[in-house]
Amino acid sequence: MKNRANLLLLGMFLAVTLLLGSAVAEDAKLTVMNPQGIRPPIALKALAPRLDTLDGKTIYLVDIHYQRSRDFVEELYKVLKEKLPKTNWVLKDKFGGNMEDDPKLWAEIKKNGHGAIVLLGH
């Protein structure tokens, strides 16, 4: 990728030089921006430790309202309650869409839950 960007910049410089002529290009100052931008640093976080059992635990099932997913979420909730009856399953709707934060819900899960399954699209 870096080589492609450098070649692109060189090509742009040559095109400007040819268009303006060599006499004008010597005096001209050319400012070129890097099209790649600057990537933000990635903060690595450790995974949460696994639960040894789900029996007696409270697990949140969080629906983020992905398109046409509600029927699936409700069916999954029903099946989990049926297959794992010793687990306390809590079905919650997340505020807003998948790009919006819901600090109240995350605080509730952290305070009352042992884990969460957050259902995302695709």
The neighbouring-strand order within the major sheet is 2-1-3
User: First CA to last CA: what distance?
Assistant: 29 Å
Number of helices: 4
- What is the N-to-C order of secondary-structure elements (H for helix, E for strand)? HHEHEHE
Rounded to the nearest angstrom, the radius of gyration is: 27 Å
Largest sheet at a glance?
3 strands, parallel
Question: Structural class, judged by helices and strands?
Answer: alpha/beta
Strand content: 5-15%
Quantity of strands, as a count: 3
Name the helicity range: 40-55%
Count of individual domains: 2
Please tell me about this protein's structure:
By secondary structure, the chain is of the alpha/beta class. The protein has 2 domains: 1-43, no CATH class; 58-119, no CATH class. Helices cover 40% and strands 14% of the residues. The chain contains 4 helices and 3 strands. A 3-stranded parallel β-sheet has the order 2-1-3, sandwiched between helices. The protein is elongated, with a radius of gyration of 27 Å. The model has no long low-confidence stretch (mean pLDDT 84).
